[in-house]
């Protein structure tokens, strides 16, 4: 195994990749792969990021977990979840934990609303923003503190071999 952390970002709009880059800055030795189909190199630590769309983790992420389960079980695995609705984060985290019970940590990092895409996507995002404003809820943003804390946990795990 190489002495490197692999960050796999399963992203539709780029927010998960942005979070991966923030983690990479914290870790230094991490390599980012966007939407991988399989593990290209075995590593002692994997950090997986997924967005949530209509209450479900990214489809590519779910397929990846099934396909690579045996390899992931032999390593330290941490997962971060990005979604626009922080008020249901517990539900999202439970769904991800059920998919990867071997993960040593699953954290919610919230997210950003990306206004690139089709007119229909922009319409729905604007509706979400307006609804949050009407309900006096904060606008989604990446939670840097949680990403830094995750980075520290990953660093600690990197120094311990998993059997």
SSE-based structural type = alpha/beta
CA(first)-CA(last) distance:
13 Å
The coarse silhouette is globular
Largest sheet: 6 strands, mixed
What fraction, in percent, of the residue positions are helical?
A: 40-55%
H/I helix tally: 6
Determine the mean pLDDT: 83
β-strand percent reads 15-25%
Total strands: 6
Summarize the structure.
The chain has 163 residues and is α/β, with parallel strands linked by helices.
Can you describe this structure?
The chain is 42% helix and 21% strand. With 163 residues, the protein is of the alpha/beta class. It is globular. The two termini are 13 Å apart.
Provide the fold topology.
Elements: E1 5-10, H1 15-27, E2 30-34, E3 45-53, E4 56-57, H2 59-67, H3 69-73, E5 76-82, H4 89-99, E6 105-110, H5 119-134, H6 144-158
Parallel strand pairs: 1-2, 1-3, 3-5, 5-6
Antiparallel strand pairs: 3-4
Defining traits:
alpha/beta
